[in-house]
Design brief:
membrane, 2 domains, Growth Hormone, Chain: A, mainly alpha, cell membrane, transmembrane, about 425 residues, single chain
Length: about 425
C-alpha cells in the first residue's frame, strides 16, 4: 500500500475523533444559543445544502490545482470555522458558520478519493478505501466518548479540541503527503487557463457518462438508508418500543457496535472484496444492507406486542445490526472503487465530486420523507421501503457493472482493429 494511504489512515483516525467529538453534541450546543429548535434545524440543514457547491467545484479544482492543496485548504478552513462557533453566538452567524463548515468539508472528499485512486492499482483500490474507512471508524468509536467526558466541563472546549485536531491533520497532509495529480506537460499560464476551461463540470460529466448518472441515481437510495438509520432510527424506536423507558433506547448501543465491527473487520472484508467482481460484491452488500433495514423496521413492533425485556430486545437488534453493518462494510469501499475505475485519469477528482451528489441528495431528501412518515408512526413502512429499495439497488449495481465491462471490451476491440 502506498505511503500516502497509510498517512491518510492515521489522519482519518484523527479526523474521525474531531468530528465525532463534535457532531453528537452540536445540536445541544445550538439549543443553548438560539431561541427555538426550529432555528437549530435551520442551522443544521444549511451545511448539506452548502456542501453541494463544495462537492461540485472541489473535484474540478483537484484535477487542475492538485489533490494536496485542496485537501489542506479544506481542513484549514474547517478548523477555523470550528473556532468560529466559540466566538460567535448569534443565529445568523451560526447560519454562516454552518454553511462554511459544509462547504469546506465537502471540498476534501473528491480530492482525497482521487488521491487514493492515483496511487493504488485497480485491484487494490477496494482494500485502500476500506483501510481508510477503518481509520475513520477508529476515531469515530472514540470521539463520542471523549466528547461526552469533556462536555461536562465546557461545551466550547469540544470545539477548540476538534479544531485543533483538524488543523493537526492539515499539517500532516501538508508536510508528509506528496502530490499525486498525474503529471502533464508543463504549460504557460495562458495554456493552463485554457486547460482549466476544458475541464468539464461534474454536472456535465453526469450528463455525458450515462453509467455514472445511473450509478449516482441508484446510490441515492443507499444514501437515504444511511442517513435515516443514523439520524431517524432512534425516533422509530421511540414510536414502537413504548413499553421501555426512553433512557433505554437501543440506538446508542447499536452505533457503538457498528463502529466496533467496522474497526475489527473492515480491512479483511475489503481485502476479500477486492479480489471479487465489483458488481457481485455490490449486489451482496446491498442485499444484506437492505435485509438489515427490514429487520430494523419490523422487530420493534414484534417486541412491543410481546412486551419483550430490554436484554432480549438489545441482543436481537445487535444481531440484526450486524447483518446491516456487514452489508455496509462489503458495499461502501467497492462503491468508491467503481468510480475510481470508470473515471478517466485526468478527471478522477471531477468524477469523485459527481459521485458525491448521491450522498447529498439522499441526505436532503431522506429527512423530508422520514419526518412525514415518522410523525404518523409509519416507521415500519419507511424502513421496509428503504430495505427493499436497497435490494433493488444491488441488482442495478450488478447490471451497471456488466454494462461497464461490455463497454470496456468494445473499446478494446475497436483499438485492436485499428
Amino acid at each position: 500500500m502506498d505511503r500516502n494511504v497509510w498517512i491518510r489512515f492515521v489522519g482519518e483516525g484523527i479526523n474521525g475523533v474531531a468530528f465525532m467529538m463534535l457532531m453528537p453534541f452540536f445540536a445541544l450546543y445550538l439549543k443553548d444559543k438560539v431561541d427555538s429548535l426550529v432555528l437549530v434545524g435551520i442551522v443544521m440543514a444549511i451545511a448539506p445544502i452548502a456542501s453541494v457547491f463544495g462537492t461540485m467545484i472541489g473535484g474540478k479544482m483537484a484535477d487542475f490545482y492538485g489533490r494536496k492543496p485542496i485537501m489542506v485548504g479544506s481542513m484549514v478552513g474547517n478548523g477555523i470555522v470550528m473556532l468560529g462557533f466559540v466566538f460567535f453566538d448569534t443565529f445568523w452567524m451560526f447560519v454562516v458558520l454552518s454553511a462554511l463548515l459544509g462547504f469546506f468539508n465537502s471540498l476534501f472528499h473528491p480530492a482525497a478519493s482521487a488521491m487514493v485512486a492515483d496511487v493504488t492499482a485497480p485491484e487494490k483500490r477496494t482494500e485502500a478505501f476500506g483501510l481508510l474507512r477503518m481509520g475513520h471508524n477508529i476515531g469515530a468509536a472514540t470521539g463520542p466518548l471523549l466528547g461526552a467526558s469533556i462536555i461536562f466541563v465546557s461545551k466550547t472546549i469540544v470545539f477548540v479540541i476538534a479544531a485543533g485536531t483538524t488543523l493537526f491533520y492539515a499539517a500532516i497532509v501538508a508536510f508528509f503527503i506528496y502530490e499525486t495529480l498525474p503529471k502533464q506537460e508543463k504549460n504557460d499560464s495562458a495554456k493552463q487557463e485554457e486547460e482549466k476551461e476544458k475541464l468539464p463540470s461534474p454536472f456535465k460529466v453526469l450528463l455525458q457518462d450515462r453509467l455514472l448518472l445511473l450509478f449516482v441515481l441508484t446510490g441515492v437510495v443507499i444514501s437515504m438508508s444511511f442517513s435515516q438509520t443514523e439520524g431517524m432510527l432512534p425516533l422509530h424506536f421511540d414510536n414502537e418500543l413504548k413499553h421501555i423507558p426512553e433512557t433505554l433506547n437501543p440506538f446508542p448501543y447499536l452505533m457503538a457496535f457498528n463502529g466496533l465491527l467496522v474497526v475489527l473487520f473492515q480491512f479483511p472484508i475489503s481485502t476479500w472484496a477486492g479480489k471479487k467482481k465489483i458488481g457481485s460484491v455490490m449486489l451482496l452488500g446491498a442485499f444484506l444492507f437492505g435485509l438489515g433495514q427490514i429487520g430494523i423496521a419490523w422487530f420493534p413492533t414484534f417486541f412491543y406486542s410481546q412486551k419483550s425485556d430490554f436484554a432480549i430486545i438489545l441482543i436481537i437488534l445487535l444481531l440484526v445490526y450486524a447483518v446491516y453493518t456487514l452489508g455496509e462494510m462489503i458495499m461502501s469501499p467497492v462503491q468508491m472503487t467503481f468510480i475510481a475505475n470508470i473515471a478517466p485519469e485526468h478527471l478522477r477528482g471531477t468524477y469523485m465530486g459527481a459521485a458525491g451528489l448521491q450522498w447529498i441528495l439522499g441526505g436532503a431528501i431522506g429527512p423530508l420523507i422520514s419526518g412525514y412518515l415518522l410523525d404518523r408512526s409509519l416507521g415500519v413502512v419507511m424502513f421496509t421501503m428503504l430495505g427493499v429499495g436497497c435490494m433493488i439497488a444491488g441488482v442495478i449495481y450488478l447490471l451497471i457493472d456488466k454494462m461497464t465491462n461490455t463497454t470496456s471490451a468494445q473499446k478494446e476491440q475497436r483499438q485492436a482493429s485499428m
